[in-house]
Amino acid sequence: NAGVTQTPKFRVLKTGQSMTLLCAQDMNHEYMYWYRQDPGMGLRLIHYSVGEGTTAKGEVPDGYNVSRLKKQNFLLGLESAAPSQTSVYFCASPRSSGEETQYFGPGTRLLVL
Amino acid sequence: AQSVTQPDIHITVSEGASLELRCNYSYGATPYLFWYVQSPGQGLQLLLKYFSGDTLVQGIKGFEAEFKRSQSSFNLRKPSVHWSDAAEYFCAVGPSFNQAGTALIFGKGTTLSVSS
To answer: CA-CA distance, A14 to A86, in Å (whole number)?
Structure first.
């Protein structure tokens, strides 16, 4: 049981390039979340999903798209990366149905030049 | 609006001294409250949580926190700080179960430095 995993761990992009971040959970959970962490800002919710095939916007969704085609995977896409998207991205999910505690993946550090 | 405030951006404590990190929240209903810790370059680890019941909750690594509804606070404490406690600490508030899917609201974090 690996919990929540994220790939890649680190990536450098040029402005305008696209990429997809993958979050995978082996806990068979309905809820999954993507956050970004910036210095002095804490964590802010980008998008979330309450089940396979569903997604919803969080606090800072602009410039990102998401998909939840399979229950265990939650993808975060950047269609045209901007320097403002340089950040650390965390995926989170509860460990059991009905649990409110979120457990976080190890993070993806993204640098956009 | 729902929000979490951590008034102290950076705190320095001597090793062996006591620690208190402050957290205040604004939330319409009874919140779920969490403290997470993040070591440099690492992910977030759950220290403790409060859902209901006893307002003093114990967590890992010798930490505890007290929920004070009248003060809308959930301060984190440790009686004796160790050098390994140097990290960034985040307070977060969560929805009740019938609002599931609305995620956590985080404070901006408090960086703890430990001096010898």
So the answer is: 11
- Cβ contact (<8 Å) for A41 and B108? yes
Assign A9 to helix, strand or coil: coil
Q: Give the HSE-up count for residue A76: Cα atoms under 13 Å, Cβ half-sphere.
A: 35
| Cβ contact B103–A104 (<8 Å) | no
Residue window 31-50, chain A: list those with CB within 8 Å of chain B: 31, 33, 35, 40-45, 48, 50
Determine how β-strand B110-115 pairs with β-strand A103-104: unpaired
pLDDT in tens, B43-60: 899 999 998 888 999 999
Name the percent of chain A lying above pLDDT 90.
67
Separation in Å, CA of B108 to nearest CA in chain A: 4
Burial B71-83 (b: 16+ CB within 10 A, else e): eebbbbebeebee
